[in-house]
Model the fold of this input.
Amino acid sequence: MRYVYFLLILMILQNCSFDKNSGIWKSESNTLDDKNIQFKDFKTLLSSEESFNEIVPFNNSFKFNLPKEIKNKEWNDIFFNYNNNFKNFQYTNLNRLILTSKKISKNINNKYLLSENENIITSDKKGNLIIFSIDTNKIVAKFNFYKKNFKKIEKNLNLIVEKNIIYVSDNIGYLYAYNYEKKQLIWAKNYKVPFRSNLKIIKDKLVASNQNNNLFFFNKNNGLISKTIPTEENLIKNKFVSNISADKKNVMFLNTYGSLYSINSESMKVNWFLNLNRTLDLNPSNLFRGSPIINNEKKIILASNNHTYIIESKTGRIIHKKNFSSQVKPIILNNYLFLITKNDLLVSLDVISGNIIYSYDINQKISDYLNIKKKQVTIKDIFIAGGKILIFLDNSYLLIFNINGDLNDVKKLSSKLKSSPIIVDGSIIYLNKKNKLSVLN
Done:
């Protein structure tokens, strides 16, 4: 009888370990992710090429040559800058909460934050632009462009800011500019077709795309169209949002059909285009999906459904094609690419040779570090700060890896992430689940 009791107690203890109480793992009740749920009733066609799922240990003789840390004062673009690529940000890694705001909106907020002149800029689904001062810890401006007949429509606002002017495109078809310092609407245009991309500012031009995959160059001073470039329209609408990146001379545009365009930003003429969605099958499980494109002037990095491409910026030539994709926006520093694959591998790649520097299972790293049973996490974002890799989990945990791929620390944030975090002036800033801004230093 004692032996039976001993077995029962042992079984209970095994099932009450850290991984159930910590909240670090993805909920076991949610066994299918959103993409699988969306297409669960359709037959999935198997690819002849197996997805990469290897552990590649780091060679200790290899030395990364990282750029110096930067202490940026602003975050004007939702993807940080014109080429969508993050830097090696300065961050002290103290994980100390230095500010929590009051609730900045009663409504559902949009995903991204901007920062300018110590102000945080965000928007909500009611169409409100909200400007919050970190210095005074209060809302300093609030603006809603929409009249009563749009009251019941949920608004998805695409934002970019420059010199106190917020440029906005939306899912109704409006494009407008608002000066938050003067609290003045500068201009507004109704183009009737919903916009469906991020925004870019290239000198005097504002660049955007609509849901029909038409790319527009607008005059940012009045909102008038300077040039329209039609591209392939998708017959079936998917959840992928068209993405725009840029370098000093060109604009790169990835549409929902899976075609990548390079356009000269001065002449507004197409340099080249490349289709990366070669299938003719319109089964919804084969619709194009990808992460935002990034570039470092000479190379473009693009992750599609199942592959990651390294493309020569000047010609559109595919230099390397890898059989893995990225679930969040990758980062390229010098000639090193850092990404997280769909099967939760942290991968570093040499973009010159195409060789993998290392590949590690993030879930296994957590399991080994905390000495708990391996399960699965949900990744939200990846940054590089202070020469370390910061991986934000959806459930408020922060994983800190050294640049060689070793897990150094697991920290719990003071509150759960709702927005994508940004790093400004050495601090991590994000909107939590209660619509309150948190600033960590």
Q: What stands out?
A: The chain has one domain: 2-440. The mean pLDDT is 88. The domain at 2-440 is CATH 2.130.10.10 (Methylamine Dehydrogenase; Chain H).
